[in-house]
Amino acid sequence: MNSENMVGLTAAAGFQIGVRRTLTLSQEKAWELLTSPQGRKLWLGETPTILFEKGHTFCTKEGINGVLRVVKPNEQLRLSWQPASWEEASTLQIRLLPAASPGRTTISFHQEKLDSMQHREEMKVRWEAVLNRLMELKIK
């Protein structure tokens, strides 16, 4: 299969995937949701502790390792993301973007440096499920 037929493949960043949803939350409340123990467990997994500070390393009970590279409260997280079964780390970026209407925020998950179409598809399913569960958690 040539690269023109491979969805999500870029020359510079390998395979990538982006998923986003708009929630009826301010950026501050969306940040609180993402970084709360319940919200964090949805997208990151179970971690004994995590400090949302640049350079903080983490390892989840599910075997995902990474390092926080960018932490901008209420706006952005950028981190390396490597499940135990992967040979190389990918880059995950979570952005909180103000939506057109006040009191609404778009949560965007973008992952790049994925090494295969299979990992791209797996992560697409994961991030869509995470956003759906975050929306459900927000309602509770």
From TrEMBL:
Organism: Paenibacillus chondroitinus
Positions of the Activator of Hsp90 ATPase homologue 1/2-like C-terminal domain: 26-136
Pfam families, A to Z: AHSA1 (PF08327)
Name of the protein described by the UniProt record: SRPBCC domain-containing protein
Top-rank taxon, per record: Bacteria
Family: Belongs to the AHA1 family.
